Amino acid sequence: MSTTRISVGDDYDVVVGHGLLDELPGLLGEGTQRVLVIHPRALAATGEGVRESLGAKGFEAYAAEVPDAEEAKTAQVAAFLWGVLGQAGFTRTDAVVSVGGGATTDLAGFVAATWLRGIRVVHVPTTLLAMVDAAVGGKTGINTAEGKNLVGAFHPPAGVLCDLATLETLPRHDFVAGLAEVVKCGFIADPVILDLVEADPEGATRPDGPHLRELIERAIQVKADVVAQDLKEADLREILNYGHTFGHAVEQVERYAFRHGAAVSIGMVYVAELARLAGRMDDALVERHRAILTALGLPVTYRGDRWPQLLDAMKRDKKSRGSLLRFVVLSDVGRPVRLEGPDPALLQAAYAEVSRD
Ligand SMILES: NC(=O)c1ccc[n+]([C@@H]2O[C@H](COP(=O)([O-])OP(=O)(O)OC[C@H]3O[C@@H](n4cnc5c(N)ncnc54)[C@H](O)[C@@H]3O)[C@@H](O)[C@H]2O)c1
Ligand SMILES: O=C(O)C(=O)C[C@@H](O)[C@H](O)[C@H](O)COP(=O)(O)O
Ligand SMILES: [Zn+2]
C-alpha cells in the first residue's frame, strides 16, 4: 500500500501509510542511545511492540505506561516521566517516542520539550484526531485545575508516523470525535473536505470508508500549511483554534469526561451562532455546521445551565488578551476572521442557541 509524505515546512514530514515502524530509527537522530516509548494503558501491547523493535535495532529502549485519555495530561504524570528519564540517564542525544492518541502525544511532547530543556520526540499517533491534528505542529501541554493545556511548550517533533492500521481498534466514538477536527479544517481552509463528508457521511465514520485517506491527508495538509507559517501562534495559527474557545470550556466544566472532538463540535456551532448574531455569518452556513456535524453523529448542543462556569473558563482561553475575549469566526467557508470583545449579551445568546433543556 502507498505511503504519503506531507512536509511541515522544511522541518519534518508527516508520513501516512501502513506499518511504518521501519522509519522510526531513522527519525531518532544520529548518536541516539536511549529511547523512551510513552504509551497509554489501552495500547500496552502496541507500545511494548515498538519498544521491542527499537531494542532489536540496538537502542537502549524503555517503555512507560501512562493513564488513558485526559487523565494522562497532568503535572503528576509528567513528573513520573521525568523520573523515568532521570533514572535511565537520558541525555540530550536521547529521544522520546509517543504511541497513542492526542492526550499521549501532548504529554510526551511536553515531557520531551522540558527534559534538559528539549530532547527529540517522534510521534506515532494511533487515533484519527492525533493523526490529523495533535501529533502535527508542535503544540504540547498538560492541563491544570484551572483549565485546558494551560502549561505547555511549542516543541515540533522530528517526525510523525501515521499507521492507518492502528485505527482499526479505535472505539467508534473516539474515531467520530476525531472527525470534528477534520471538519474544522474543512470550514477554515479546505471546502473539499466538507463536500466529501456531505457526499457520504456514513462512510466518513468508518476506518475503511472510501474517502478516509483523502480526508486525513487533506486535514494534515491544512494543519501543516498553517504551522509552517506561524509555529508560535502569533496570528495565522489561531485559525486552528476554531470552535475551541467554547469547546475547551465545555471540557473543563465536564472535568474532561467529554471527548475533545465532541466538545469542539459543539464549540464550532456555538461560534457559528455567535458569528451570525454579530452579523458576520449567514443562516445557511450556520445550518451547514449543524447538518454536517449531526450527520457524523457529533453533538451540537450542550446543557443549558452552565453559563457562569463556561464564561469563566472562556476567559482563560489562550486567544484572550487581558480582559478581551477573542474568537475565530468565519465570514465564509475558508475565510476566518477575528471577533474581538463581542457584546456579553451576544455571548449568552449564542449559548442559548446551542443549549438543550
Ligand atoms: N497539540 C495539539 O495540537 C492538539 C490538537 C488536537 C487535540 N489535542 C489534544 O488531544 C487530546 C485528544 O486526543 P484523542 O482524541 O486522540 O484522545 P485520547 O488521546 O484521549 O485517546 C482516546 C482514547 O483512545 C485510546 N486509544 C488511543 N489509540 C487507540 C487505538 N488505536 N485503539 C484503541 N484505543 C486507543 C486512548 O488510550 C484513550 O483512552 C486532547 O487532550 C486534546 O486537547 C491536541
Ligand atoms: O494546533 C493548534 O494551534 C490548535 O489550536 C489545534 C487544536 O485542535 C488543539 O486542540 C490545540 O491543542 C488547542 O490548543 P490551545 O492553544 O487552545 O490549548
Ligand atoms: Zn483541538
Quick gist of this model?
The chain is α/β, with parallel strands linked by helices and 357 residues long. It is built from 14 helices and 13 strands. The relative contact order is 0.11.
Give the topology, please.
Layout: E1 4-8, E2 12-17, H1 24-27, E3 34-40, H2 44-56, E4 60-66, H3 75-88, E5 95-100, H4 102-114, E6 120-125, H5 128-134, E7 139-144, E8 147-154, E9 159-163, H6 172-188, H7 191-199, H8 201-204, H9 212-229, H10 244-253, H11 260-277, H12 283-295, E10 302-303, H13 307-315, E11 326-332, E12 335-340, H14 344-354, E13 355-356
Parallel strand pairs: 2-9, 3-4, 3-5, 5-6, 6-9, 10-13
Antiparallel strand pairs: 1-2, 7-8, 11-12
Nicotinamide-adenine-dinucleotide (NAD) is lined by residues 40, 42-43, 68-70, 73, 100-104, 106, 126-127, 129-130, 133-134, 137, 139, 149, 166, 169-170, 174, 177-178, 181, 260-261.
